[in-house]
Design brief:
heterodimer; A: 462 residues; mainly alpha; flat; B: 399 residues; 2 domains; three-stranded antiparallel sheet; 3 strands; 6% strand; elongated
């Protein structure tokens, strides 16, 4: 039975359980008119039966589907001849994939060896068996659960409390998903990074000046031993971030000041949504713009004044990234400026200072901590931004601070290392996870500090 | 004054951006066609008297028609150059026509077939005629033929339906976004199906039931941080956990949807919490006062009132998910896929990834199509945001 049909059947069973549970409660109370004698509303008895019918069966199904492929793979491998079982793990994986394709009928491998055909047959056999077993077991579980729950229903049974406990548990588990995700990110990145650092020393990774992640595939290959010094990547990332900040902070901040203090309501109601559109444009679109419009424009401009500009200059990527971040900076600065108490503003104006003086000497200093927090968040956003730099920045790791040359960033390298075919235990692939770890730590630190500053500042004035 | 300039900078950029986008992309919605007298000749299609609909030589029909159009061209090389004016899609078009109506065999009809991408570019004025012949994608002879066709009124512009009905292709004039659109569609279904219930449930727990202790603080900090983690890191998580550890298929909308669900979860949680917070306490107290349990208060009163706000958050989260590219690159949704995906585990790309792929292609015709795909993507985003705004306006009630 297909998993989807199975789920549908289970749902139907749960519906039946709901009706029969409710009916049993009503009849135990002595008919529909006497439901006051029940502890809970009749529907809760129905829900109680349905929950017992559905939840265990669904849990079993989920567990089964997660474990099934591994068990089947192990069984198939066990059935292979002695010679094949002695292969290395990588080759075994390959073999298993071929067998899977044969079983699915995708690969018309007429010339395949006999043992493989046997294995494919066995695989098909096992998965049929497993599906059948799953269907029987989960249906049995659903029916048993439903019957047990149905049997326990009595007029003074506290169905509502039971149901509510289950719902509360479900809500609680939903709220822990955020934590599970964080742990998942940390663990998945960390494990691969540890494997990477077993091959490449941490000091080389952090302080090496040379980045060329091509490793030799064969032992006798010349010239590509791979070096994993990340300094050029970090410098490139910081350079582009710096350019982006040079664009985003002044423009964003002044926009916020203008909109908060000077603009008339009409201008504000017109300009704010427009800026929000800027925030809603997907980054891949910015990347396209940076690569096809901004970069050639900057190059022509540079050439007209006699400067040598690379076609994938850091400047183009940085400027477009800055434009992307303007709305973030301006909205966070706007919050900070609006959080400055009215009394301070009125006080300064009352003492005879002009609007600009109030702004410059009173409001901005008071809002500075909040603005700083916002800028930190913006920096974190710029460091983690991927698509703009993938499309508009270079691939080669240049150790330079010249904004007119091509540099590469951490995110660009993660993408180039992981896109395309890959073996999962080469230093090249693992390096991407090590870079991911560095990126995660850097942005996490910025976010924690930034969010903390923004929040603390807001509380201070409240 | 500076403030005004700064605001103007943002808006001017937006204007430049849209103008250049529309300027480049608008022409991709049109495609030039050549009208040819096609003779569905039995000699060519069914040489042995037997018509093989699938593999008959339809390209020969197109070639013959072109050669008849220019009888003076007899040189073999020139004839080959001549046949390059028409797209490879022309043959498929004739095949489909014949499939629909087998009576066409042996008849003659005037058919508009799509031109090749270079002729299309020329017709749209994107090729500089003054350039040296060696630097032009079309040589002098081909230019002359195109002009002659135009003079005979055989060159027409039509709406480019291929853009919406085809999957990806190596030939720009045959490439469409249907595959990417369907991929995005399947992915968003998975995303909304997971992220909305989970996000709302988490928000309800945190707002209504969570005790104010360290655990709740930890969850809160966590959610805020997750909202600011770079999306590419979520892609790494998807690659390591879903693809490599759980063995889910690469390039599948299912995995993409899962990753995007984790990505949008914080957005939906934060929006839902704000919506729940906006429900006045008096409603809760009234319900509690007449004997409802806390769970009943929440599900019978608070959630229905907060639902529009939650939906707004969900739409905003979805529009973010629709534009997201980087995590999808990590889980292998960047493959060149011609077939339109038909399910959650078929290999697929998404609309933004398609834009990324096309933007990488050097041909001018792909740049045009990239802009067109961006226009489509932005139109979808605009629609979603419009829906969110309308929803917000409609329910923005004061208690």
């Amino acid at each position: 039975m297909q998993p989807t049909t199975l789920v549908l059947v289970l749902l139907a069973l749960a519906l039946t359980a709901w009706y029969s549970g409710r009916a049993r409660a009503l009849s135990a109370a002595g008919g529909p008119g006497r439901s006051v004698r029940l502890h809970s509303l009749p529907g809760y008895y129905g829900y109680y039966a349905a929950i017992w019918c559905l939840l265990p069966a669904l849990a079993l199904m989920l567990l089964w589907i997660t474990i099934e492929p591994r068990v089947i793979a192990a069984l198939v491998l066990k059935g292979l001849p002695e010679a094949q079982r002695a292969l290395s793990p990588g080759e075994l994986d390959l073999l298993l994939n071929t067998i899977r394709n044969m079983a699915a009928g995708d690969a018309a491998l007429d010339h395949a060896e006999g043992f493989m055909r046997d294995a494919a047959g066995a695989l098909r056999e096992y998965s049929h068996m497993s599906r059948r077993l799953l269907a029987v077991l989960s249906l049995a579980l659903a029916v048993t659960g439903g019957i047990v729950a149905w049997w326990r229903i009595a007029p003074d049974f506290r169905a509502r409390n039971r149901v509510e406990t289950v719902i509360l548990a479900l809500l609680l588990s939903a709220s822990t998903i955020a934590i599970v995700t964080t742990i998942g990110i940390v663990l998945s990145v960390l494990f691969e990074s540890i494997r990477f650092f077993r091959e490449v020393p941490l000091t080389e990774f952090l302080f090496g000046l040379n980045w060329s992640p091509q490793t030799a595939i064969r032992a006798d290959q010349v010239g590509s031993s791979g070096s994993f010094g990340t300094v050029p990547l970090f410098v490139g990332t910081l350079l582009i971030t710096l350019i982006a900040m040079c664009v985003a902070v002044p423009v964003g901040l002044m926009t916020a000041v203008f909109l908060a203090e000077y603009a008339s309501t009409r201008v504000r109601s017109f300009a704010k949504p427009l800026l929000e559109i800027l925030a809603g444009i997907p980054t891949v679109v910015y990347g396209f713009f940076a690569a096809l419009t901004m970069a050639p424009a900057i190059r022509r401009l540079g050439e007209s004044v006699g400067l040598e500009v690379a076609s994938e200059s850091a400047l183009a990527a940085g400027v477009v990234m800055g434009i992307m971040i303007i709305p973030l900076v301006s909205s966070l600065s706007d919050d900070a400026i609006n959080a400055v108490p009215r009394a301070m503003r009125d006080g300064a104006l009352g003492l005879g200072s002009t609007r600009s003086e109030t702004m410059l000497h009173v409001i901005l200093p008071a809002a500075l901590p909040g603005i700083t927090g916002g800028v930190l968040l913006a920096v974190s956003r710029a460091i983690g931004e991927t698509m703009i730099v993938v499309m508009a920045a270079g691939l080669a790791a240049n150790l330079t601070v010249n904004p007119l040359e091509a540099v590469t960033t951490v995110t660009v390298q993660i993408v180039t290392l992981l896109v395309g075919d890959q073996e999962f235990d080469s230093a090249k692939t693992l390096a991407a996870f090590a870079l991911g770890l560095a990126l995660f730590i850097a942005t996490l630190a910025l976010n924690v500090v930034g969010l903390h500053v923004v929040r603390k500042y807001r509380e201070q004035y409240e | 004054m500076f403030g005004f300039l700064a605001t103007a900078v943002g808006i001017v950029f937006l204007a430049v951006f849209f103008v250049s986008l529309v300027g480049q992309g608008a022409s991709a919605f049109k495609q030039s066609f050549i009208e040819l007298e096609i003779e569905y000749s039995e000699d060519v299609l069914a040489p042995g008297g037997q018509l093989d609909l699938e593999f008959a030589d339809y390209d020969a029909l197109v070639r013959n028609a072109l050669w008849r159009e220019f009888p003076e061209v007899t040189d073999r090389r020139a004839r080959r150059e001549l046949s390059r004016l028409v797209s490879a899609a022309a043959g498929f078009q004739l095949r489909d026509a014949l499939r629909q109506d087998s009576d066409l065999l042996g008849t003659e009809a005037r058919v508009a077939v799509p031109t090749s991408a270079t002729v299309d570019m020329l017709a749209k004025g994107n090729i500089d005629r003054s350039l040296d012949a060696a630097q032009r994608p079309l040589n002098d002879r081909q230019l002359q033929w195109v002009d002659e066709l135009a003079a005979r009124d055989r060159l027409t512009m039509k709406f480019n339906t291929a853009l919406f009905t085809n999957g990806d292709s190596r030939e720009p004039e045959m490439a469409g976004i249907k595959g990417a659109l369907m991929g995005s569609f399947y992915m968003l279904i998975v995303t909304i199906g997971l992220a909305f219930p989970l996000g709302v449930a988490a928000a309800i727990y945190l707002e209504e039931f969570a005790p104010k202790n360290r655990w709740a603080d930890l969850i809160e900090v966590n959610i805020n941080n997750l909202a600011a983690v770079p999306s590419i890191v979520f892609g790494l998580l998807g690659l390591a956990v879903f693809v490599n550890w759980l063995g889910m298929p690469r390039s599948a909308p299912l995995v993409g949807g899962l990753v995007l669900a984790l990505l949008t979860l914080p957005v939906i949680i934060i929006a839902s919490r704000a919506a729940i917070k906006a429900v006045p306490p008096s409603i809760r107290e009234a319900a509690l006062g007449i004997g409802a349990s806390r769970m009943q208060v929440v599900f019978h009163h608070v959630v229905p009132l907060a639902l529009p706000g939650m939906l707004t958050g969900a739409i905003i989260g979805m529009s973010r998910a629709l534009g997201e590219t980087a995590p999808l690159l990590m889980i292998g949704m960047v493959a060149f896929i011609v077939d339109v995906p038909a399910g959650f585990s078929d290999p697929a790309t998404a609309l933004p990834v398609q834009i990324f792929l096309w933007a990488d292609s050097p041909e001018r015709a792909f740049a045009e199509r990239t802009s067109a795909a961006i226009i489509v993507l932005l139109a979808f985003l605009l629609l979603m945001n419009l829906a969110a705004i309308i929803l917000r306006k409609k329910v923005d009630r004061q208690w």
